[in-house]
Write a structure and sequence with these properties.
310 residues, alpha/beta, eight-stranded parallel barrel, globular, binds ligand PBG
Length: 310
């Protein structure tokens, strides 16, 4: 069987920041920008013309604090962007990332129990407070018109907490894409430049998965499904095709794979040095992710793929 890569399989990630008429390049992340809302709108217009219909939004706030409040206050950057984009492009399907790492001064994905710099093992997330914050963030995005919220903080029971909060607030139709099997990976580094979300101390191994363990990944996916996820995800994609293949067809939910920033940048650097033909290698990579069993691919290559198909 041949798996096709079509525009409808692709989700394009965007970074949205404060200000006006801003399109800031990101270091070590070729062709990727942080857009202010107005500039984002212009770029999305091009994306829609290319025939893409799904985007995933990440916020890069003006200021950070210990509890990541800018993520969930009224008028937060992502909610504002969603509101604007939905008004102009009502048929565009908008996913929003629900995580605190770009909003906290320490750069961790949740609210910390006590400030404990130094030892790696001391990064302790206050799960209850984190769930409250994530739920508020998800509600603000849903209220603004997001079709899907995508919790990526890896807090325990985040999908259940968000589902309950959405239902209670009248957002039964807002769907949840769980970042279910999210590995602690070096492939996220360019993203962290874009989102300015590198942890200031410790690392994410306390709440992201160990790449040597595939059983835990499958357990995490079943947990998300049980908690009410409408779509599940494996992330990164390329070094985890085995996990994608194991998860495919097992959960009666669409499966997404996140072809992450480092995977993308390897291709870009190689292409710029003439190591390979960019179009050929991208299509081979994305086909392999589809072949492994992903229904949707979140990828920074999406616009290029859509252009090549034109
Ligand atoms: C954060 C988050 C990360 C990515 C998306 N959401 C990574 C991280 O743990 O820092 C990475 C995406 C990419 O590398 O393209 N919670």
């Amino acid at each position: 069987m041949k798996e096709k890569i079509g525009n409808n399989n692709l989700i394009y990630p965007y970074f949205v920041t404060v200000g006006k008429n801003k399109k800031e390049p990101v270091k070590n992340f070729t062709g990727i920008f942080r857009f202010s809302k107005d500039a984002l709108l212009k770029d999305i217009e091009k994306l829609v013309i290319l025939g893409l219909d799904k985007v995933l939004l990440f916020g890069v706030p003006a200021s950070k604090n210990r509890d990541g409040a800018e993520a969930y206050v009224d008028g937060n950057i992502v909610a504002e962007a969603v509101r604007l984009v939905k008004t102009e492009f009502p048929r565009l399907i908008i996913f929003t990332d629900v995580c605190l790492c770009a909003y906290t001064t320490h750069g961790h994905c949740g609210i910390l129990k006590s400030q404990a710099p130094g030892r790696k093992s001391q990064v302790k997330i206050d799960n209850k407070k984190t769930l409250e914050a994530l739920a508020r963030m998800a509600i603000s995005h849903a209220e603004a018109g997001a079709d899907w919220v995508a919790p990526s903080a890896m807090a325990k029971n985040q999908v259940a907490a968000i589902r309950a909060a959405l239902d209670k607030n009248g957002f039964k139709n807002t769907k949840i894409m769980g970042y279910s099997a999210k590995f602690a990976s070096s492939f996220y580094d360019p993203f962290r430049q874009a989102a300015n979300s590198t942890p200031k101390f410790g690392d994410r191994r306390g709440y992201q998965l160990d790449y040597a363990d595939s059983k835990q990944a499958i357990r995490e996916i079943s947990d998300d499904v049980r908690e009410g996820a409408d779509m599940v995800m494996v992330k990164p994609a390329l070094s985890y095709l085995d996990v994608i293949a194991k998860a495919a067809g097992k959960f009666n939910r669409p499966l997404a794979a996140y072809n992450v920033s480092g995977e993308y940048e390897m291709v870009k650097v190689g292409a710029s040095k003439g190591f390979w033909d960019e179009k050929k290698i991208v299509l081979e990579i994305l086909s392999s992710i589809r072949r492994a069993g992903a229904d949707f691919i979140i990828t920074y290559h999406a616009k290029d793929v859509a252009k090549w198909a034109h």
